[in-house]
Amino acid sequence: MLNRKTRNFVVLIVAGLVFVSCSGSSDSSTTESVVESTDASVEATTTSTIPVVRAPLTGAQAPDETVIGRPAMVVKIDNHPKARPQWGLNQADIVFEENVEQLTRFAAVFQSQGSDPVGPIRSGRLQDIDLLASLNGPLFVWSGGNSKVTAEIRKSTMIDLSHSAANEAGGFRRESSRVAPHNLVAETSKLWTLAPADAKPPVPQFEYRADGETVPTDAKPSGAVKISMDGVDVMWEWSPENLTFVRSQDDKPHVDVEDVRINAANVVVMSVVYGKSGSSPVAKTLGSGEVWVYTAGVLIQGSWERTDPLKPYVFKDTKGVAIKLTPGRTWVEVIRAKSAVHVPAGIDTASVPYP
Q1: Which of 21, 211, 253, 293 is buried most deeply by CB count within 10 Å?
Q2: CA quadruple 253, 119, 173, 146: dihedral positive or negative?
Q3: What is the pTM of this model?
Q4: What is the mean pLDDT of residues 265-287?
Q5: Is 7 part of a structural domain of the chain?
């Protein structure tokens, strides 16, 4: 039997052990809780403080942050039958298709990515000056032009990187598998090294929908748009499988040198007035006119406006609300008035004639 003094000592020891055990358990759970809370806080902070870097001409995440500060580069690409298939059309952020002499030509705008090689490269036109001025002094890659065009382009805000100006330093060469004059190519990676030290990146040319933002409820589901350009019939069809618009020329799929169908997230059909300089059409891209914007499988109708060539086009729907595009690559069809027809979803495109 324990005496009174011994019993009291044992009670003290047991109580102490219980206290230590409880205290240790409490400290451990508190520590774990603090660690978990800290980890969650760090994770939340990390997630919320790393912004997505978006390319200015696509509104999509930039493939490489180092390219964001470089200038836009416009390459005049041939669309003569002997120039097809082309290099670089599926790598350009924006492509303008413009009427020239009984045919069309592309002004392919590169910034977020390039194309080695790119082409076939052809001559510039007077209409390029206003059409491209909002790109903030872009590098202009072309094969040359007549004396009037050459003088005006050199006086413009564009940086002349013609065949004669850039030559081998820009990677210009004749492609042996093609015939002249439809065989001149260059390399965008080399051409960018020729940019002036003070060259600046372009400002965004369009407004884009935010993640999760939907198209207007009154937009029209689209099957295709058929366009009669000078010397070529163009069709853009919505591909639900690929969630993009795909291009045809003269009712044949238009593909690049990699045999990939020419495609775009957005197709802007912009009606303009065409004047003339000699035998060359001149698109008047200052003022206003009708615009059809094809995006996310729908058509949004409205108007375009532009009073200053150094500022981007403004697109608004029939209610006066800014039209927003899908982040990604965009084609702009610079058409004559009344030369496009909308094909609603579910209608056989072959049953709808070109206008």
Answers
A1: 293
A2: positive
A3: 0.86
A4: 97
A5: no
